[in-house]
Amino acid sequence: MFQKILVAYDSSPSSETALSQGGELARLCQGELHLFGVIVSTGGMAIGQAAGAEDMLGQEGNAIRSSLEDSAGKLRAEGLRVVTQTAEGSPAEEIARYALQTGADLLIIGHIPHFSLGHWLQGSVAKALLRELPCSILVAKER
């Protein structure tokens, strides 16, 4: 059913839920799991970088890559085929680009609870992905 499963991952609690469900589905479908992290270089991050703040993008990138590799190592130890990748830019654009590039059958994103800035931001990302992607999208909620 799903041979290439893409998990949008940023090590937040909601993306950990997405990762857990992605791992379960990859195991059931005997599919390949792609863990994808976006180093956000738009909005506040871009302004901070332009203003000469510390290398925030570099620090965020290192943290995301490290977290992706740690998670991938655990999943590989369980016998799953796992690919990790990061990109810098807008989350919706980069996730859509990578999903199309890899031919993902399913994208899994974590659910962010209502009434938060994160929910508003995710809402715009999810809406953009719904418009752009030809594959199914699963919004993973904690059980």
Rough outline: globular
End-to-end distance: 23 Å
User: What's the level 1 CATH class?
Assistant: Alpha Beta
Written as H for each helix and E for each strand, in order along the chain, the element string is EHEHHEHEHE
Compute the number of structural domains: 1
Trace the largest sheet across and list its strands. 3-2-1-4-5
Q: In percent, how much strand structure appears in the residues?
A: 15-25%
What class would the helix/strand composition place it in? alpha/beta
Number of strands: 5
Oligomeric state of this protein? single chain
CATH topology: Rossmann fold
CATH architecture: 3-Layer(aba) Sandwich
Explain what this protein looks like in three dimensions:
The chain is α/β, with parallel strands linked by helices and about 140 residues long. The protein has one domain: 3-Layer(aba) Sandwich (Rossmann fold). The protein is built from five helices and five strands. It has helices at about 15-30, 45-50, 55-75, 90-100, 115-130; strands at about 5-10, 30-40, 80-90, 105-110, 135-140. A five-stranded parallel sheet has the order 3-2-1-4-5, with helices on both faces. Helix 4 runs parallel beside helix 5. About 35% of the residues are buried. The model is unreliable at about 115-120 (pLDDT under 50).
